[in-house]
Design brief:
The structure is a homodimer of 187-residue chains. Chain A has 187 residues and is mostly helical. Chain A is 66% helix and 0% strand. In chain A, helix 7 runs antiparallel to helix 8. The radius of gyration of chain A is 19 Å and the shape is elongated. The first copy, chain A, starts with 7 loop residues before the first helix and ends in a 6-residue tail after the last helix. The mean pLDDT of chain A is 94. At the A-B interface, helix 7 and helix 8 of A face helix 7 and helix 8 of B. Chain A binds a DNA duplex (30 and 30 nucleotides) through loops.
DNA sequence: ACACTGTCGCTAATGACATTAGCCTACTGG
DNA sequence: CCAGTAGGCTAATGTCATTAGCGACAGTGT
């Protein structure tokens, strides 16, 4: 038997592919093994178990989002940065709804590097608003809620007709930028 | 063997209880059967399968949220109504995070009555803003995104420290009400 | 009282998965 | 060339969902 030449990364690649066709529910070790042409137990040489594989998948997805969002926000600041970030975020979800949905099954591990990075980018985009301490934290949470909420609903088909989703999202962007840049200090 | 006196509703009750302790991942037919003191296959007399049970659970949760939110918004209008609605929504999530999380595994069936009702309440709360047609739809989507996004993140422990979540949510309320009542027509 | 019928619960069996144990062999460094 | 390890495999176990088929109990109409 020739070696399959697997690696943890290759397993995650395959897992992502499985999710892409078939949706989050299709992510099983059997499916991944089948895709890379290996018996199911062989995967355990590269991945601790299904739970870990799921975490690796969400880390991968977070990395991809962070890459895209970082590039979009690069060289921008204030409302402009937040707008670009939000649009880039959604563009990922629109392109890979199944991947985004896959994250629901395994939250990012505490202290996950990709999650931290994405969060950092988000804080960076808010820098232009000159928020301090707790206010900055609150603003970041609002931004996350808005972006993630829309993403989850759209990825899951939670909105009725897909029509005009762009316009809805533009409104959300307006609401968020308007609300976070305007009224400081809400307590 | 004395009858257990089950019914679809009773099965959903038990399923919700299973989710409450144990989290969404603990929802299995075996666990539900054990809780009501019945063999697993007996559940099929009341529920088509696990997928349907999950849907029934999400309908139940949506009903509970709709009840709470409807009462909160009753007799209020405009920003006041939206504020009350948002606070009531989150209060449910804080009390029953596992139930809320359980909805991720089974989106509301197309045309689900509870989902429609909740959506209707939401539209009702926005009535005070005098939005028309597409603008109203966009506003509703923004409201849903914000509320659901925050809820998902909080229920999943997605925010770091739980500290000050109240303040963060109040900011979100301010952002949403400010953004939706102010600038009509964003196109 | 009594048979009748359908409802509801049970046991047995099947099949998909995850996971573990233990074996065997292809590479890799000396 | 040789040894050791990494990476694959088969076999076995346990949990679950799901289906099939069996029996008992409750309510109905006589």
């Amino acid at each position: 038997m020739p070696r399959a030449g697997l690696s943890p990364d290759a397993v995650v690649d395959a897992a992502v592919a499985v999710v892409d066709d078939g949706g989050p529910g299709a992510l099983t070790l059997a499916a991944v093994a089948g895709r890379v042409g290996v018996a199911t137990p062989s995967l355990y040489k590269h991945v601790r178990n299904l739970a870990e594989l799921r975490h690796l998948v969400t880390s991968r997805v977070l990395e991809e989002i962070a890459d895209r969002v970082a590039e979009a926000a690069l060289g921008r600041s204030g409302d402009d940065a937040v707008r670009a970030l939000m649009r880039a975020y959604r563009s990922y979800v629109v392109e890979h709804p199944a991947r985004y949905g896959a994250m629901e099954q395994a939250a990012a591990p505490e202290g996950d590097a990709a999650a931290e990075r994405l969060l950092g980018i988000l804080y960076g985009a808010l820098r232009g608003y000159e928020l301090e301490g707790a206010d900055l934290v609150h603003a970041a949470r609002c931004l996350r809620s808005a972006v993630h909420g829309f993403a989850v609903l759209e990825a899951a088909g939670g909105f009725g007709l897909p029509a005009d989703l762009e316009a809805s999202y533009e409104l959300l962007i307006t609401v968020v930028t308007g609300g976070l840049s305007g009224p400081r200090r809400v307590a």
